[in-house]
Design a protein that fits this description.
Length: 304
């Protein structure tokens, strides 16, 4: 994405990809005080469609409110900027990154009164995990998930993800593809950038809000799709040992979409292959995002 035909929307104007720059001392670069969203657009028979655009925009503004960041644009303006960025870059499917940041060069923690900029980038994007089709290997991290006594886990703040980076790096150094973090109470929380689901006797189980999770939009989508397919879904506290005894495990997230987990802490999950419930939900999710399921057509915003 470095050629002259690629563009980033920055404070109401398009700039060439390679010209979208900030100063080395920008506050959000120094201190992690930025906020962001991750959104996907998918190729459909009617053209590119952005998945749950309005919900992502709402969460972006909710994060800004949690962190006290005064944005100079409104939700609908952000939605329009996202649509325009996908169109400008002539992309059929892509990953979209709205980013809000303190665009001010000063040394000091307090950003109040400083300039806030908003950018939107859209880049081609395939599977987040290599080997997703066969499932991935995970390990329970030694790092705990942040909680509301430390940082707001419901916000997508840049600094929050240092916790995720540490866990993910540890997992990869130990030969796994990704980590699973526990809450400060010892319950299963989520992956570094994904929510987690368990399948137990045909029932879907996922950690609840009390486990200090990000309330993922893909997570919510899978819950609604599963219920439409007649599955029982439980949101509750999940013990670590349940990861070892469940029939199936999988991650959900904008980047991860729906990714099967076939090993946890070097232990085989179920048969060690993608299970039938996971496969059914994966196929159903693909139908929804490709515009082939009319029941969830309201989740797609077409780029015109």
């Amino acid at each position: 994405m470095k050629d002259a035909k690629s563009y980033i929307w920055l404070d109401g104007k398009f700039v060439a990809f390679q010209d979208a720059k900030v100063h080395l001392l920008t506050h959000s670069l120094q201190y992690g005080s930025g906020i962001f969203e991750g959104i996907r657009a998918y190729k459909t028979a009617k053209g590119p469609a952005i998945f749950r655009l309005e919900d992502h925009a709402k969460r972006f503004f909710r994060t800004a409110e949690i962190y006290g960041m005064p944005l100079s644009i409104k939700e609908k303006e952000l939605e329009k900027a996202i649509l325009s960025t996908v169109s400008k870059n002539e992309l059929d499917s892509c990953y979209i990154r709205p980013f809000g940041f303190y665009n001010d060069q000063h040394i000091g923690l307090n950003p109040m009164g400083k300039k806030v900029s908003v950018a939107v980038a859209a880049v081609p994007f395939g599977n987040y995990f290599t080997g997703k089709d066969k499932g991935i290997r995970c390990k329970v991290s030694s790092w705990q998930r942040i909680n509301s006594l430390i940082m707001p886990p419901e916000a997508k703040g840049s600094g929050n993800y240092l916790n995720s980076i540490l866990a993910s790096m540890e997992a990869k150094k130990d030969g796994a593809d990704e980590a699973v973090l526990l809450s400060h109470d010892g319950y299963v929380a989520e992956g570094p950038g994904e929510n987690i689901f368990l399948v137990q006797n045909g029932k879907l189980v996922t950690p609840s809000k009390t486990a200090d999770i990000l309330l993922g939009i893909t997570r919510d989508s899978i819950i609604k799709i599963a219920e439409a397919e007649g599955l029982v879904v439980e949101e509750r506290e999940v013990h670590r040992e349940e990861l070892y005894t469940s029939d199936e495990l999988f991650f959900t997230g904008t980047a991860a979409e729906l990714t099967p987990i076939v090993k946890i802490d070097s232990r085989k999950v179920g048969t060690g292959m993608t299970g039938p419930v996971t496969k059914m939900l994966l196929d159903a999710y693909d139908e929804v995002v490709s515009g082939s399921n009319d029941d969830f057509s309201s989740w797609l915003t077409y780029v015109t």
